[in-house]
Design a protein that fits this description.
The chain is α+β, with helices and mostly antiparallel strands and 181 residues long. It folds into 2 domains: 59 residues; 84 residues. Helices cover 47% and strands 14% of the residues. The chain has 6 helices and 5 strands. The strands form 2 sheets. Strands 1-2-3 form a 3-stranded antiparallel sheet. A hairpin with a 5-residue loop joins β1 and β2. The longest helix is centred in the first third of the chain and has 34 residues. The protein is elongated and about 70 Å long.
């Protein structure tokens, strides 16, 4: 009985899957056929690459978390985050706002950008009541705005959005960082 080419690929694919399960993420497999087995090999390779990317991202996040718990000053942690996350996600600006003692306002505490101007400056305040920031804090869920100009058109009274659009920013990821509960 003649062995098909795909018969030798299946054990290689199984070995690659076991290796990925053991944490050896980049385990590219040969892709020789244009049939369903070849498509499976291609998908395994894509999975390996994506898992490696996510693993690298998790390592970066863990490293920054370790720095936070190592007692570094907040400014040092934020500068490190700005400098190190570029390999994980693309961005041009990072900012940090803190809630005031009464938790009624978010106060811009820190900002760093690779663009020449900062419009939303340290000290800028925004009321929390009824704001989208309040919702982010309450749910603990991040928010992604892929089109800040469209968001500003829908919410023209958002001074913070207006300022970062003036800076040239076109999208935004807002994540709640909650310390001490």
């Amino acid at each position: 009985m003649k062995r098909r080419k795909s018969d030798k690929l299946i054990p290689e694919y199984q070995t690659a899957i076991r290796s990925m399960r053991e944490g050896k993420l980049i385990q590219l497999v040969p892709v020789e056929l244009g049939d369903e087995i070849g498509k499976l090999g291609h998908e395994l390779n894509e999975l390996a690459i994506e898992l490696e990317r996510k693993f690298d991202e998790a390592i970066k996040i863990r490293e920054i978390s370790e720095e936070i718990t190592a007692g570094m000053f907040l400014d040092d942690v934020l500068n490190r985050a700005f400098d190190s996350f570029h390999s994980v996600i693309p961005y041009n600006r990072m900012g940090c706002a803190l809630l005031n003692d009464e938790k009624r306002e978010a106060v811009a505490y820190w900002a760093k950008t690779d663009t020449p101007n900062i419009s939303l400056k340290v000290g800028h305040t925004a009321a929390m009541a009824g704001s989208s920031l309040q919702q982010i804090i309450e749910t603990g869920q991040p928010r992604i705005l892929n089109d800040l100009e469209a968001y500003l058109a829908e919410y023209p009274t958002s001074a913070s959005t207006k300022l970062i659009v003036e800076e040239g920013m076109r999208s935004s990821l807002t994540c709640p960082l909650i310390a001490g509960g």
